[in-house]
């Protein structure tokens, strides 16, 4: 029952109550850890025992990691039941009893995120429990049996979390997830889900918590691992600790540039070229090109035991057709070689039978002169009919299959191809490009061939290399690297993941989308992004455009509408920027105000580095213990670097996905002058959680 006592007395009593519960939960965690550790000292005797030990070890790891947030919430049911919610589930010593703490990902925890006074889901009250290590520091209660629903769940706890200083690393948010976020986190994972959300709406939060939810709910997904794709190594570094903190390790984090083991991007490329090479047409072009590498049917003369055995062109054509049947080039080559070995063995066997037949006939003729037999049909009555036994034939095939000369002959007819060389050959040859990619203009082709002479790969080469490697297939079966599922997945280009999460998905080119689909043919994909923040060199202004060539219309859309990061004062500046970017969308609604008006400082170009250094020093002091980000047009970065020392100065594109307590935004006009510059400025403006200072050139 909720009483009308004064809040402070009530709070103190509630804090004491939750402290007692947290103490008990910590003690229970210690007991369970000790029990598991003791069980693990007994060596496993067989495979079943080892599998059990792996399970126990994982449980122990999970318990050890669950330090902060052991409990963060509580639901009081209308029927008097009390349920605590925490970062992991905790059971009593008696394993069959109800958990004393419900894992935030379990169905029983759902009302904690979704119950409202209008739809209380059997709950009378939701309580957020704030903790600092082992100490309860406060509680926020929300009655669920009262009047209308507010927009936010656990507003006090949420705003406290949002007001914290930024450390430069993203943190977990399971204690304060909001309704629209929860709906996406727990959505079905059977097909592609595309989540549109403006800046700071928690897309990254949702994406990462969804990974944890899916791995918890669908245990078999962990056997195939989940791929998390982000826009840059800096971004991956920013989110790096979230999934381990959520207890998830069956995860591979990568950018599109790092998806092929052993291949790295070593050079930048002109924007126009990136756009051309990202288009969907390349998939068909590469398919046609790889098909053109197949051997032409012609008569083949194979030499065996000093004799030539011709295989006529029609038979060779049939062998090629039945070998290809949708197989990758190298796999088809293996099947072709097997068929050719059979055809040669048959030819050798037939030749031998014919020879014996001839010899037989000659022998019979000689015999007939001495011992003519009336009624004889002229055929040999001998049981030696010249046919090879099955064993002899098998043996012959084996010898042919392992013969080095035959292998060389197959190689000369159907050579193995290195995907890198094959791709370079295509990209440097205007005639080949014209033939296989007829939708490219002569101007496009001239750009491509000129650039392809450069050493090393540019970002747009990686999806092309991936596609051609896939079409060619592996010449042999690649060795499986040892290690955890994540290590094995990271080491194999052809690994098929259980789920793929893409952050900043608006940046993906069509060919990068193809690369993602290849890794997840089941299409269990969650893509989050903001089409209005798109800066990449493609022409999409909507999700339907962006994924038409890969997903068609078979995907589900979801939306996030509330901005948690950027204060209202700064979000108010973004509407004209969005309009100038050509967007018809409204910026998301900011949930909080920092009370700090954005400030603009004007300066001449000559004074810019010095003024930037002074302003940065002021901001650093004000936000000491937090983070200040500096964002500038690419052209100004060298001059600014000299003035700002070791402070990283980011382009708007590099700041994508990141956030700072304060942003020093330098020369916004310079940013808008860049291609898709207003989208870039929209990104840059929305990085701060508290304060924005802009330096403009007079
Ligand atoms: N439910 C939540 N509880 C606590 N913090 C949250 C919540 N949702 C979002 N945040 C915080 O809001 C900030 C923005 O979240 P996030 O980076 O996920 O947004 P985003 O939509 O990916 O932004 P952008 O597109 O601008 O990169 C982060 O600091 C994040 O921790």
UniProtKB/TrEMBL annotation:
Keyword tags: ATP-binding, Helicase, Hydrolase, Nucleotide-binding
Residues the entry annotates as binding ATP: 197-204
GO CC annotation: cytosol
Compositional bias (Basic and acidic residues): 370-382
Classification via Pfam families: AAA_19
Ranges where the record places region Disordered: 113-144, 370-389, 581-600
GO biological process, one term: recombinational repair
Keyword Hydrolase: yes
The keyword Hydrolase appears for this protein: yes
Single GO MF descriptor: DNA binding
Domain UvrD-like helicase ATP-binding: 176-567
Entry superkingdom: Bacteria
Matching InterPro entries: DNA_helicase_UvrD/REP, P-loop_NTPase, UvrD-like_ATP-bd
Cited PANTHER family: DNA 3'-5' HELICASE, UVRD / RECB / PCRA DNA HELICASE FAMILY MEMBER
Name of the protein described by the UniProt record: UvrD-like helicase ATP-binding domain-containing protein
Source species: Catenuloplanes indicus
């Amino acid at each position: 029952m909720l009483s009308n006592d004064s809040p402070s007395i009530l709070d103190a009593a509630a804090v004491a109550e939750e402290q007692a519960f947290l103490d008990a939960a910590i003690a229970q965690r210690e007991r369970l850890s000790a029990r598991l550790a003791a069980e693990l000292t007994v060596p496993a005797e067989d495979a079943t025992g080892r599998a059990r030990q792996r399970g126990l070890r994982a449980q122990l790891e999970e318990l050890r990691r669950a330090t902060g947030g052991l409990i963060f919430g509580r639901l009081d049911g209308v029927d008097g039941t009390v349920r605590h919610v925490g970062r992991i589930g905790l059971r009593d010593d008696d394993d069959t009893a109800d958990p004393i703490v419900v894992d935030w990902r379990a169905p029983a925890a759902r009302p904690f995120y979704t119950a409202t006074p209008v739809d209380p889901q059997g709950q009378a009250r939701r309580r957020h429990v704030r903790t600092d290590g082992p100490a309860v520091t406060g509680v926020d209660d929300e009655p669920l049996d009262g009047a209308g629903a507010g927009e936010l769940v656990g507003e006090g706890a949420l705003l406290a979390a949002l007001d914290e200083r930024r450390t430069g690393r993203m943190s977990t948010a399971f204690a304060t997830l909001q309704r629209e976020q929860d709906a996406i986190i727990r959505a079905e994972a059977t097909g592609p889900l595309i989540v549109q959300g403006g800046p700071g709406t928690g897309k990254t939060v949702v994406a990462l918590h969804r990974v944890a939810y899916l791995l918890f709910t669908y245990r078999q997904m962990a056997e195939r691992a989940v791929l998390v794709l982000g826009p840059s190594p800096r971004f991956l570094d920013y989110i790096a600790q979230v999934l381990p903190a959520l207890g998830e390790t069956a995860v591979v984090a990568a950018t599109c540039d790092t998806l092929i083991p052993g291949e790295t991007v070593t050079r930048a490329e002109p924007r126009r070229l990136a756009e051309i090479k990202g288009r969907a047409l390349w998939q068909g072009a590469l398919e046609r090109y790889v098909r053109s590498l197949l051997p032409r049917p012609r008569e083949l003369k194979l030499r065996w035991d000093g004799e030539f055995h011709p295989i006529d062109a029609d038979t060779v054509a049939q062998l090629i057709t039945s070998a290809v049947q949708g197989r990758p080039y190298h796999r088809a080559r293996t099947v072709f070689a097997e068929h050719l070995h059979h055809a040669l063995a048959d030819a050798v066997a037939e030749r031998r039978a014919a020879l014996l037949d001839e010899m037989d006939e000659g022998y019979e003729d000689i015999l007939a002169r001495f011992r003519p037999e009336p009624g004889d049909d002229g055929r040999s009555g001998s049981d030696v009919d010249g046919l090879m036994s099955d064993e002899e034939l098998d043996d012959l095939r084996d010898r042919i299959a392992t013969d080095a000369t035959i292998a060389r002959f197959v190689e000369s007819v159907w050579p193995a191809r290195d995907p890198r060389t094959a791709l370079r050959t295509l990209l440097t040859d205007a005639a080949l490009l014209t033939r296989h990619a007829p939708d490219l203009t002569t101007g496009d082709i001239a750009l491509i061939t000129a650039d392809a002479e450069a050493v090393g790969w540019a970002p747009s080469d990686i999806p092309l290399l991936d596609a051609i490697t896939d079409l060619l297939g592996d010449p042999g079966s690649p060795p499986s690297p040892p290690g955890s599922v994540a290590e094995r997945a990271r080491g194999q280009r052809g690994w098929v993941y259980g789920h793929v999460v893409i952050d900043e998905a608006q940046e993906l080119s069509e060919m990068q989308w193809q690369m993602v689909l290849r890794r997840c043919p089941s299409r269990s994909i969650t893509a989050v992004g903001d089409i209005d923040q798109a800066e990449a060199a493609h022409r999409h202004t909507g999700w339907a455009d962006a994924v038409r060539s890969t997903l068609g219309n078979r995907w589900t859309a979801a939306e996030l509408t509330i901005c948690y990061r950027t204060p209202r004062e700064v979000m108010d500046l973004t509407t004209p920027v969005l309009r100038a970017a050509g967007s018809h969308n409204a910026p998301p609604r900011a949930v909080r105000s920092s009370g700090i008006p954005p400030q603009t400082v004007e300066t001449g170009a000559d004074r810019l580095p010095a003024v930037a250094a002074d302003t940065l020093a002021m901001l650093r002091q004000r936000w000491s213990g937090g983070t200040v980000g500096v964002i500038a047009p690419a052209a100004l970065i060298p001059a600014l670097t000299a003035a700002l020392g070791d402070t990283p100065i980011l382009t708007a594109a590099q700041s994508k996905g990141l956030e700072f307590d304060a942003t020093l935004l330098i020369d916004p006009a310079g940013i808008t002058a860049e291609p898709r510059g207003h989208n870039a400025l929209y990104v840059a403006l929305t990085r701060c959680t508290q304060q924005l200072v802009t330096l403009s050139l007079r």
